[in-house]
Amino acid sequence: MSVLTVTNLRKSYGTVKAVEDISFTVEAGEVFTIIGPNGAGKTTTLEMIEGLQEPDAGTISINGLTWKKDESEIKTLIGVQPQSGALFELLTAEENLDLFASFYPRSRKTSEVLEMINLTEHRDKRVKSLSGGQRQRLAIGLAMINDPRVIFLDEPTTGLDPQARRNIWDIILKLKALGTTIILTTHYMEEAEKLSDRVCIVDQGHIISLDTPAALISRLTQEREMRLSFHDGEEAASQTEKAIQSQPDIVRMERDGANLTLWSVKPEQSLYDLLGFTKERGYRVGHVSIREMSLEDVFIAFTGKEWRD
Ligand SMILES: Nc1ncnc2c1ncn2[C@@H]1O[C@H](COP(=O)(O)OP(=O)(O)OP(=O)(O)O)[C@@H](O)[C@H]1O
């Protein structure tokens, strides 16, 4: 069942076309991630869906409801992670949660949320003395306090160290296990790949690709990158390069001294041929690796831009 349907969304700021024509549907229980380069229109898209910005054109339907007709009902259905600057610094973690709970007719128990965000032992600490990771966990706690069907998390792990980031992933996976739909933006490819059911790549206000991480990667290319290094030096690498360059499965090859990098659509076959040749010549191969393509490769191929970390 679709929880969110966005159709032909547009938004300009003066002459800047932030969102040009965005349409997608999110199913119940999905983790749906929007990625894209800086200024692609991710935050603008999210803010229109969250009811914080009015679209110039297009429609947004959340559980069959629209902002114009059903604003108060939608507010009970969604949870939005506040920016960490919007937390009340002088209140404790628990007091922040109690305060946000008071805004809703129905809410989760504060103790239950503290448990989910792993802040029970810090419940009495003021926000100003929490670490960056703890603040972000509290911000997610505030987004889930009304037990929403859909949670919006805009770059929840930006600036956090790897362990703090993983702690946030655990919370996202717990929410997913409870059936909550999660709309996420991130600048971390590993995060998008690990958490998302589907990933939407946005660039210059348009969706340029939308699919599961695995489908995006396999759609990009069948090629695999292979690297070999030769103990017998440059000459061995160069001879091998010449011998196998007519092999039809190899689409590209680069040599740097005694190191050879190849891209093949049939890596196993190419490797078999290659090692057949080196064995015949008696060349000693030092290191062999085959690299799987990642979501980062997909991003670079589709947007032509380097990934920002
Ligand atoms: N309030 C605003 N006034 C004018 N221009 C804006 C405003 N908000 C966003 N923009 C512009 O709209 C475009 C899309 O911005 P948006 O913040 O949605 O992108 P983003 O994908 O979230 O970027 P980032 O990854 O850097 O957060 C950018 O060119 C941005 O400069």
Automatic annotation (TrEMBL):
GO molecular function, one term: ATP binding
Record localization: Cell membrane
Pfam families assigned: ABC_tran (PF00005)
This protein's UniProt keywords: ATP-binding, Cell membrane, Membrane, Nucleotide-binding, Translocase, Transport
Any one GO cellular component localisation term in the record: plasma membrane
Chief location bin: membrane
Domain of life: Bacteria
InterPro entries, A to Z: AAA+_ATPase, ABC_transporter-like_ATP-bd, ABC_transporter-like_CS, ABC_transporter_ATP-binding, P-loop_NTPase
Protein family membership: Belongs to the ABC transporter superfamily.
Protein name: ABC transporter
Organism taxonomic ancestry: Bacteria, Bacillati, Bacillota, Bacilli, Bacillales
